Fold:
Amino acid sequence: MTEKTPDPVHVIGGGLAGSEAAWQIARAGVPVVLHEMRPVRGTDAHHTDGLAELVCSNSFRSDDADYNAVGLLHAEMRIMNSLIMAAADRHRVPAGGALAVDREGFSADVSAAIEAEPLIEVRREVIAGLPPADWSSVIVATGPLTAPELADAVRELSGEDSLAFFDAIAPIIYRETVNLDRAWFQSRYDKISDGFEDTENAGKDYINCPMDRDQYEAFIDALLAAEKTTFKDWEADTPYFDGCLPIEVMAERGRETLRYGPLKPVGLTNPHQPDIKAHAIVQLRQDNALGTLFNMVGFQTKMTYGEQKRVFRLIPGLEDAEFARLGGLHRNTFINSPRLLDETLRFKARPAIRFAGQITGCEGYVESAAVGLMTGRFAAMERLGETPSRPPETTAMGALLSHITGGADADTFQPMNVNFGLFPPIAEARDERGKKIKGRDRKKLMADRAKADLNRWLSDDQADAAE
Structure:
């Protein structure tokens, strides 16, 4: 007798979270309908109709799985056969210790994989309002740019006001327009990207533009005086996310703020003036595989386009810079997940609906995809008659999930990147001399514990499924 095919899971949104969720569901043998509104309706931030388009930076941040929480999350997702991480690895570009990708190649790769999967049907359409009641399993992965009709419907059903913040986008510059008589290639502390050790330019992943004190002060003056984007009345009181502040907002917090943030001059030596220490340094990171485009690191901005060109060309080495994309600003929305979602990301007011990605209040490409991965697994297990199993809280996956679904204070909930502060404390450990293990070494212990616990959890899951 032929086993009946499960009813499909509907995934709304074809960003990183939605694409990852759809992939995980299909890998489990459950059919998926993936609904993506582009190109039927565009957004203020997207430029293509490709799935998993990267609208801000091209960086997935640190790839260090031993001492960095996001690098550990990368490793866990790779172990769990993440489509997003596989595509990122195939399209990585040099970025020191970070994982950065060719954004066009990455999106095309994810799109091709999704469209070639026989269990996934992609429908280009707008889902206005809540999904139909006869959709018995739905994942809303509409990201920070959720269609207004759907956002309003969720708010009405939940009785909760939607929280919101602004997310700013950094400019991208054509490499050939950077003046290398003043700028130079080098990674901070000569850090070499994994997989690029044997290349001619190993340890030279960033273009560095130095400023002396007078140039820095003139730049700060120009930033503070520049014309900025004006907000609509309903946007005026929306807070920024601290991990993605516009550069001029950072400058407003103190004239030295940028020197201790994205413009810190440490770990770099100017070959044009090796005996002179720069007062500040602007870094550009490679943005595509060809090396023709470079992203201004940390230069998210709300300045008008004309002002961006004027102010950024004050930076030594960028006097004649031409921009492939100027910076911008868009409004992100997210729900109060600790109050509205259960432990497997189901909407308490309507359990047939799960949420995934940035709309849940996680922050960052990798975190968004990771929540999509978990939501996809939960939905697939439920469709197959199994009880969804949460990853241990000691893992990066589990720590992020726990924060979203109850670890955070619902009254003060704000977007959060994964970090070791979300992990359960590790039992007090001491070295061979009896001294308490702290700092970097403690992070390594937490990362080792996470990897072991994740592998044990996956083995137990597989054993349970086989019974």
